[in-house]
Structure formats: C-alpha cells, structure tokens
From TrEMBL:
SUPFAM superfamilies: S-adenosyl-L-methionine-dependent methyltransferases. This is S-adenosyl-L-methionine-dependent methyltransferase. GO terms for molecular function: S-adenosylmethionine-dependent methyltransferase activity. Residues 48-141 form the Methyltransferase type domain. Keywords: Methyltransferase, Transferase. It comes from Immersiella caudata. One of its GO terms (biological process) is methylation. The keyword Methyltransferase applies. Transmembrane segments: none annotated.
C-alpha cells in the first residue's frame, strides 16, 4: 500500500504544506486543450482528474467544464477532497486510473494528473484512457520534483545527502533514500520520459521539462514555460513541506524512537537536516532561534506532458 493510503498519513497536513499550482500552469493546460477547438462555450465538456489528492486541480479547472470527476485511490485523500470541495459539478470518487469502468466510452474531454502520473500502471491505464476519451480530447500530466533554494547552492548538497544519500548523512542516522516508493519517484525525477502516450491513440505529444539541479547555467537557462513552480517561503515552511514526503513517513515508521523536537523528541531526520542547513549559511545561523522565519526563494524542477486523442 502507498504511504498516502495508510491510515497514519495526514491528508490535512499534506494539503496544508504542499505547494499549490499557479494560474499560469492551468492556463497553459487549457490553452493546449482549447487549441483548434473553435469558439466552444465555456464551461464545456467533462474533466477527469486522476490522483486528485485533496481536490486542488479539480476545483481550479471546474469553471471551464460542465462536469468534473476527481479520482484518488486513497480513502484519506478522498475524504479530505470532499471536505474542501463544495462545487456540485465535482464528483469525488475513490478509484484508480487503471479502472475507469464507471465511465462510458468517449465521455471525457480532458484528462489531467497533477503529481500523480508516476504511480500509474500504464499497461492497464492507457487502454482505459483511450476508451473513455473523445476523439480530439486532451491529456495533461504534470509534476514537480526536488526544489532548490535560489542563491544558496551549498544547501542543495546537504538536501541531497539527507534525502537521497546512500551513506549516513549524520553519525548513526539513515537517510530517506530507501523509503522512496519506486519506480514512481525515479519516473518523476526523470521527467516522465518513460511515460509515452501510444501513437495509435495519441498525437501532438508535447513534453516541457526542467530540473534545476541538473542545469549547468542555472535558472536563466530554463525554458520560461517550465518555471511555474516557484514561491517565496519561510524556512519553517520548507521544513513542514519536507515532512509531507512519502519517504519521510517511511523513515519515521522505521525509526519510531527518533521524534521531532516539535513534539518533545531529541530530533528526527528533518531536524538534523536543518541543523546542518542553518549552520551552512551564516545569515541563517546568525538568526538564532528565529531562523524559521527567514524567507527564501524556492524553485522546483517541473515536467508537463500533453497530448491529443486521435
């Protein structure tokens, strides 16, 4: 079972601390979807949101559609989505991309997946998606991966050591590396390159990807259309975000004796990571106990995969 589907996973915390999506991303997806469609009335057609999580994407895109079906395999996520969603045109269901039997043939105009497409079994999902989408329908899968803190390159190596390192990041402490759910995480980090819409059913395939920690020239060399996941956040908010990682929850389950300082423990892996991060940046260290209030510019690697139904 995925970490997100376990009863111990906090879907409310996930909703609170995960980055949201900016309007520019939704506008790009809708522009691709509406290209060559003529002056169709708005709202128009059906939207299918796969891996809907707490319903953010479904709610954002709902004004452009007459019906929205939001689907997630996690009962916790479905419950959270229903609590946060009050639009009667949005139906939130528990289910998977591999079984869309509740939908009729050729009913869907746009199928999307935000931060979810790396979990699908495409041997089963592609035939289902081909069946439920109309001719000329659109597909848009997107995701974001590891973030970097702009202007502080020394923090990237520390982050990678604690999150992906094979060696102990601190004496006697295991990194999060073995707790990532694979192959999903690697598929996302590799910009969905193995997610290839079948040519028999899909055309006009477009992939926009950028990874800041693999780009030699930095942000200035990134495609403008790829820079959609960027925000100013406090270091304390970054800390909270890291604790939404599925790998962190896996690590936490394997090391129950290492509690965070926030709950009275001596420190978990995120506490130890931030000890080193703060020590590495003089101005953060000089802030003392107020380091959590320092604002930084964070930018994530991104990928968008789009295609049209033949």
């Amino acid at each position: 079972m995925s970490i997100f589907g376990r009863s111990t996973f906090s879907s409310a915390g996930y909703a609170a601390f995960r980055p949201s999506y900016p309007p520019v991303l939704f506008n790009r997806v809708l522009a691709f979807h509406n290209a060559d469609r003529g002056a169709a009335p708005s709202p128009s057609g059906w939207l299918l949101d796969l891996g809907c999580g707490h319903g953010l994407v479904a709610r954002a895109l709902a004004p452009s559609f007459t019906k929205v079906v939001a689907l997630d395999p996690s009962a916790n996520m479905v419950e959270q989505a229903r609590k946060l969603t009050h639009d009667p045109k949005i139906e939130v269901r528990q289910g998977k991309a591999e079984d869309l039997s509740f939908l009729g043939d050729g009913t869907v105009d746009l199928v999307v997946a935000g931060q979810a497409a790396h979990w699908f079994d495409y041997n089963r999902a592609w035939p289902e998606l081909a069946r439920v989408t109309k001719r000329g329908a659109s597909l848009a899968f997107w995701g974001y991966k590891d973030n970097v803190i702009v202007g502080y390159p020394q923090t990237t190596a520390i982050y990678n050591k604690f999150v992906y390192g094979e060696a102990e990041p601190a004496p006697g402490v295991e990194s999060m590396a073995r707790f990532w759910e694979l192959p999903g995480r690697e598929i996302l980090r590799d910009s969905y390159r193995v997610v290839v819409p079948p040519e028999s059913d899909w055309t006009d395939v477009k992939r926009i990807a950028w990874d800041p920690d693999r780009t030699r020239g930095g942000i200035d060399d990134a495609p403008e259309e790829a820079l959609w996941q960027r925000k100013s956040l406090k270091l304390g908010e970054w800390e909270d975000y890291l604790r939404t990682f599925s790998a962190f929850h896996g690590w936490q389950g394997a090391h129950p004796g290492m509690k965070s300082r926030a709950v009275g423990g001596t420190g978990d892996i995120v506490d130890l990571m931030f000890d080193e991060l703060v020590a590495a940046v003089p101005e953060w260290k000089a802030a003392g106990e107020k380091w959590k209030d320092i604002e930084v510019d964070a930018i994530w690697g991104t990928v968008i995969l789009m295609a049209k139904r033949r």
